[in-house]
Protein 1
Amino acid sequence: MSGHSEWANKKHRKEKSDAKKSKYFTKIGKEIAVAIKVGGSADPNLNPRLASAIAKAKQYNMPNDNIARSIKNAAGLGDKTNYEEVTYECYGPAGSAFVIQALTDNKNRTAGDIRHIFEKSGGSMGTTNCVLFMFNRLGVVAIEKGDKNDEELEVTAIETDGVEDFKVEDENFIIYTDPSKVLDVAKVFEQNGCKILSSQVEMVPQNLIELAEDKIENFEKLLDKLDDNDDIQDYYHNVIY
């Protein structure tokens, strides 16, 4: 499977966001709220989207008390803010493509903020379907190989329902799944003694572009701005560096 950034790049972004845990926990709280609204239940056993949001919270070391409080608020016992899901497609610097997923209570504000971020970084806001066709919606499970050998992991992947492809990296094993099966696939590998680094539905680029050395600093500044925006939940791009 070509077209997905190395886990090292993701880890780098996660480590940077770890320095802003409070902001990131707020974003996950919004995700939990929408999951309960859309899924119609505050029980993760009955609401796969909520189960996915909780799994993501735990992967980012969100305390259980914070998770429980977010569920309580979202179930109508606290914050009544109504969030909408919005997807934006953007052109980044050096011909890069971005898919931005946001949860917002003010779409005009969010669109204006994102447009400003990209224009200041040498990019622009795109129109519907201008870059989305360059990405595939897939479940992505990242596993730390640890003492598992590649062949053992590959056999498990081939035998597991829902797995569509996989990729071997130096330290990690990346599995691509049917979006509806991502948590089930992660559970199979976890039961086999694997450490799950991440398991969520993502927009996976079909092809990657590599930035010139003098473009990387500006690109990373753009990513920092996206990380800092309260409305942006996730973003995906087709750059490897």
Note: Confidence is low (pLDDT under 50) at residues 1-5.
Protein 2
Amino acid sequence: MEHWLLNNFLTLGLAFLMTGILIPQILVIAFRKKLFDGHDERKIHHGAVPRLGGIAFVPAIIFSVLAVIGVDLSGHSRAMMFALEEAMVPLLFLICSLMLLFLIGIADDLIGIRYSAKFFFQLLAAALIIAAGVWIDDLYGLLWIHILPYDWMGWGLTALVVVYVVNSFNLIDGIDGLAAGLAAIALGFYAIVFYLGAAFIYSMIACAAFGSLLPFLYYNLFGSATRGKKIFMGDTGSLSIGMVVVFLAIGLTNFTLEPVSIGEFNPIVMAVAPLLIPMLDSARVFLRRVRKGRNPFMPDRTHIHHKLLDLGLSPTAALAILLAAGIIFLLSNVFLSPYVNINIIFLLDIAVWTVANIMLTRAIRRREQRLQKDLYV
């Protein structure tokens, strides 16, 4: 186990180093070519800020994972050879899907593309990981369903989950550090679970993605726009990180992990718990837009971070609240899963989220009355 722990730290360190080298170079190119994030009523930043930080993620993840694997194989590591027997095909198809979303993300960040085109490539990325054998075939009691009777049901559900989660991270990327912070929480959790469960290649992937986020968070949260040191991840980053996260989440449902066994923790709960904030928020916003007669795919200012800002909180305070909420959802769901039925757990999650949003909306309405202007529409 110590060997794999070292591999995890090496992978994380290499991804951290590579992203830390790439982001300053991306900033230089962005300012020379004037590639900045546009302004509209949804944006809260001021000054010229590039949105190309996510370009560093995929190269850093692929390089760090493959470099550590290559070093191990060059030393004829039998442990690595054994681990790759099961994980090689999923790893290769994950790289293919990442490259696909990486390219479509760059195109969207530079020139903009229609959401229908993004959906098409997300479905294609989902098809790639399904082809690798990473797909949902057991719901472990969710909606009182266990093993799915037909493979095509699992394929369709997996495609839907991939598109949903990837877009959830894309949509919640609205204030500094939020999408990256929530992704880092999920990736850190998955890295630990896969390591304890002896799915070591998956743990390395999680560590690589986690390491790639750390330098970005520094520039995103603490970089000065006036000094040309601030950067956003853009669609390139949110689509890529979302893909890694959902790949690991689905992969978690495919393993009987020891000592984190199915008898102790429900795999679906462990897979979904770190993703509840972006998933619940996206579902709420989508349903609200439909109820209001709006295009559900067109952006607006109705996400949970917008509500906290409309309440008068600073972006830093809103970020802290949402990251804390993400950790609380994660820990409470995982620790309840051995003792409480999965359906009750998720109903409690939805109830808590619904009540919290109702309370926020009422607080915003009271603030609107005091200020005599519309904030949340």
Note: The longest helix spans residues 78-110.
Protein 3
Amino acid sequence: MADPTLIHGPYVERHAESRIRAAQDDTRIVAIIGPRQSGKTTLARRLANDDRPFVTLDDEQFRRFAEDDPVGFMRSRHTAVIDEIQRAPGLILALKRAVDENPQPGRYLITGSVDLFRSSISPDSLAGRVETVELLPFSQAEIANAGIPGFLDRAFAGDFPNLEEKGPTVDLIERVLAGGFPEALSRTDPARRRTWLRAYARALSERDVSEIAAIHRLDEMARLIEHAAVSTGLLLNMSDLGSRLGVDSKTINRWLTLLEHMFLVRRVRAWHSNELKRLVKAPKLHFLDSGLLAALRRVDAATIARDRREADPLLECFVHGEIVKAAALSDDAMTVNHYRDKDQVEVDLVLERPPGKIVGIEVKAGATVRPDDFKGLARLKQVTGNRFACGIVLHDGERVQQTASKLFAMPVKMLWEA
């Protein structure tokens, strides 16, 4: 793992930067969206210049100007980098008007800590005028200052060797517990890192939620985040969550949607097919950062040393996060689902790309892979037929090995080294 002290040292190259620069050449507005503290502001400042000055709406003076007179605010800025635009939602309409009057590409780069174009904060659509680029916490390849991994392309091509020694990932648990938030990684003491991460979750529930929605029971939102951490990787039961918090399932659904818009969690839908009637339809819930999940679950290295099973949900979260980060860089649309049927046969993650190609991924925290670990992947292969590209068991072992046609076992580090 890269030395965490580098996070506050030389700039860590973000894989999304080249995509953003390309979008600025032909698109009027480019939006960088992602969770708070994921590095959006640092990247936006890097992309600002004399012709495209940087303005942050975390600054009270700028925010008041933008809120009180959005048209005037935009009129004085022919081009700009506008940081945290969700803090003045009235700017969206003024932004639309400005680029409609002058459709020159690359005029505005905006950042937002909520998914601006799926939440209620955006009063009007910028469809056709904006390209959105997701910037999540550091990926493992970014931490290592490596290039964009080829894992997804290789998986959909089934392009893995029959047998290849890769060596152990000696610091896998450390990577999982650290997560990818730059500010957290700058803390070399794991206890201090966990303190920051818990404070981060608390700030989201107490401040950010109230900024984007009329939520009056912020203490309940904080409790929901805690309960969600316990339920990660499991089938989501909103009625059960609601009963624990004293609200109905519709309220839970609305609150989870807010947490999704803030990039804290993501619902992983059940993979389905019209031909298959015996599939479980309930989604699973995943956090987007394994370090944050570990902090909320009060799990550290000593906890895992006592009981290795504590690593299972964290490693699945870690793998999900790495895949989501890689998918955000791809030109090929990809969905991430899970599979479970009425026989309780399941696959942790099911990836699907047009024209319907399927990759199944099982996550195992141990170093030994057994035939039973392929049970779900074999079922998925059976039900998807020619659409099945390959099935992979990711584990804490040392070699890539093909165990059957289109079925592989390989170390987790293939996610960023492949």
Note: The chain has 18 helices and 14 strands.
